Amino acid sequence: MVGSKTLGQAVFWLCCASAWASPQYVGGTACKTCHPNITVDFYRNPHYQSVASGKEKPEDTGCEGCHGPASDHVTAKGDKTKIGAYSAMTPKKVLDSCLRCHAESLGRASIRRSSHSQAQIACNSCHSIHKARSAKYLLASTEQRNLCYGCHGNVRAQFALPSKHRVNEGFMTCSDCHNPHGATAPGTGMGGRPRMMQTALGNEEPCMKCHTDKRGPFTFEHAAGRVDGCSACHVPHGTANAKMLKRPAVFTTCLECHNGLGDFGRQGDGVKLTPSSHNMSDPRFRNCTTCHVRIHGSNSDQRFLR
Ligand code: HEC
Ligand code: HEC
Ligand code: HEC
Ligand code: HEC
Ligand code: HEC
Ligand code: HEC
Ligand code: HEC
Ligand code: HEC
Ligand code: HEC
Ligand code: HEC
Q1: Distance between terminal CA atoms of the chain?
Q2: What's the Cα-to-Cα distance from 56 to each of 18, 50, 75, 296, rounded to whole Å?
Q3: Which of 50-54, 168-172, 215-219 has the lowest mean pLDDT?
Q4: What is the sign of the dihedral through the CA atoms of 69, 74, 76 and 78?
Q5: pLDDT in tens, 30-65
Q6: Is the CB of 230 under 6 A from ligand 7?
Q7: Can you tell me which atom of ligand 9 is nearest the CA of 226?
Q8: Which ligand is the nearest neighbour of the Cα of 169?
């Protein structure tokens, strides 16, 4: 039951107080006088589309689409506390503000659960709306890799090792393998994939996008990659070892699992020993892949010999 007095108050607060007390949308032209450079540059911003179309509601267009209604800010001749000022927002507030429009395309759940969001890295750590340096995507650096290296300095060194993917040379980008907005395993409704791995074709590792011959399915699959995927044997950023292998020689990579210890950690027991027919003191046997040529999987031989 709502008394008539309460109802009257409610109606007052709804229709009158809000109109009288809260700031209104004034449109972008009002900003030009005091923020001339930002306003002029804005014509080239992809966010100008909403202004150009002229079809959006005031809260979804132009400066106020991000900074919120600005009448109080204008009346006060530029009071910073009376406008949506990103310099004063917590990372979570920034996320909320941008996701109002971008949640659908980026995936609301995966971006909120991403390692970046969890670590308080928000949109404006990587994107710059008014001082973008890149030709596309409003990035805060001219090159994507430099943006990432700004915080992941150790990774820069990995891509400078002798056996590596050519990211520093500009043939690939970090986002060929990672999704900086976080990635969710499709169809599982689960949280983020580890290391924010980008997915190719459904739930695959991103590697298959380019190394299609490793995709399979093979009649005889090498179960080595079942848990860690390609990273069971390769270091995808780069290493000092040939073919980006984890270990300096092929056989040391193999013996990590086929070692006769009957236990190689997470894959569990049951890995076949390197057979006794293989004389490890004979150098011929050390280069395992001269015989096990289909090391990633074979359609004709259980032991990957052809
Ligand atoms: C009468 C001049 C004036 C007008 C008109 C004006 N501003 Fe401002 N604005 C200022 C001044 C001055 C500041 C700096 C205040 C400070 O640093 O304390 C400011 C600060 C801001 C900030 C805060 C920046 C930050 O993060 O520190 C934003 C956002 C902003 N204005 C947006 C707008 C928008 C959008 C409009 C148009 C709807 C607008 N302003 C119109 C004078 C104006
Ligand atoms: C897509 C969201 C978005 C739109 C649209 C937008 N801004 Fe901003 N604005 C930001 C963000 C984020 C910042 C914080 C600095 C940055 O990341 O570039 C900012 C910063 C500012 C600042 C502080 C000064 C500075 O350079 O840091 C002012 C003033 C401002 N904006 C005014 C405007 C005006 C005027 C418009 C319309 C012409 C506008 N903004 C449109 C997101 C937006
Ligand atoms: C860790 C850095 C980083 C963070 C944080 C980040 N982005 Fe991005 N974003 C990028 C990079 C890099 C690209 C370009 C990807 C490419 O080249 O394929 C991009 C692309 C985009 C694109 C255009 C392409 C697309 O996928 O639709 C949009 C829109 C976008 N980001 C919005 C956002 C929003 C909104 C947030 C915050 C909720 C955010 N980004 C947070 C790095 C980041
Ligand atoms: C009012 C809705 C709205 C808000 C709020 C908004 N955007 Fe956008 N954004 C758009 C539209 C519309 C486009 C252009 C169409 C497109 O590419 O999807 C766009 C495009 C982008 C792009 C892609 C540029 C390109 O080159 O493809 C990035 C990056 C981006 N926004 C980041 C942000 C960030 C960061 C924020 C928060 C500071 C933000 N947006 C807030 C509507 C919005
Ligand atoms: C503003 C700093 C910053 C920028 C820029 C940045 N990152 Fe991050 N990144 C972090 C932080 C902080 C974490 C979480 C802590 C950690 O694991 O290092 C993280 C985590 C990650 C992770 C997950 C690591 C894990 O163990 O789960 C990946 C992958 C990653 N970032 C890739 C990128 C890529 C690709 C870019 C460029 C598009 C980028 N980052 C840009 C700060 C940043
Ligand atoms: C060829 C695919 C690929 C490319 C390109 C790539 N990564 Fe990775 N990255 C991976 C994989 C796979 C892992 C997980 C490795 C593991 O867990 O053993 C990883 C792990 C990471 C991690 C977490 C572990 C660590 O070393 O700190 C970060 C951070 C990271 N990558 C950042 C980047 C950045 C920044 C770039 C671009 C300069 C980049 N990656 C390019 C595939 C790639
Ligand atoms: C965007 C395409 C692309 C993606 C994604 C990609 N690679 Fe590559 N990869 C290449 C190219 C191109 C080469 C050839 C070497 C070069 O760039 O000089 C290569 C080479 C390699 C090599 C052989 C290096 C040598 O010395 O012959 C290995 C091993 C490798 N990639 C593993 C991976 C793994 C593991 C992943 C996923 C984590 C992956 N790649 C993702 C494009 C890709
Ligand atoms: C059991 C360990 C192991 C796993 C798991 C593994 N690789 Fe390899 N990979 C190797 C070995 C060993 C070589 C070197 C073969 C040689 O000496 O000719 C190699 C070579 C390569 C090469 C370069 C030569 C070629 O065949 O094109 C690429 C590319 C490659 N691997 C990609 C991948 C991808 C992508 C995955 C995940 C689907 C993967 N590898 C998983 C062991 C592995
Ligand atoms: C990450 C652990 C791991 C690594 C590293 C690894 N393997 Fe395996 N390998 C397995 C598992 C698990 C199986 C399936 C169980 C089994 O048959 O022993 C397997 C199966 C095999 C088989 C088939 C055995 C059969 O008769 O069915 C051969 C041959 C083989 N591996 C050779 C190699 C060679 C050569 C290398 C090095 C290039 C290597 N493996 C690296 C885990 C690994
Ligand atoms: C000269 C060729 C050759 C080389 C080099 C070689 N293998 Fe083999 N491997 C074979 C043949 C042939 C078989 C199947 C017959 C047998 O069991 O001896 C086999 C079988 C295997 C099996 C399956 C054993 C089983 O019980 O089914 C494993 C595991 C294996 N090799 C691992 C390795 C590893 C690890 C290396 C490198 C240290 C290696 N092989 C090097 C030829 C080779």
Answers
A1: 81
A2: 22, 6, 24, 53
A3: 50-54
A4: positive
A5: 999 999 999 999 999 999 988 888 888 999 999 999
A6: yes
A7: 12
A8: 7
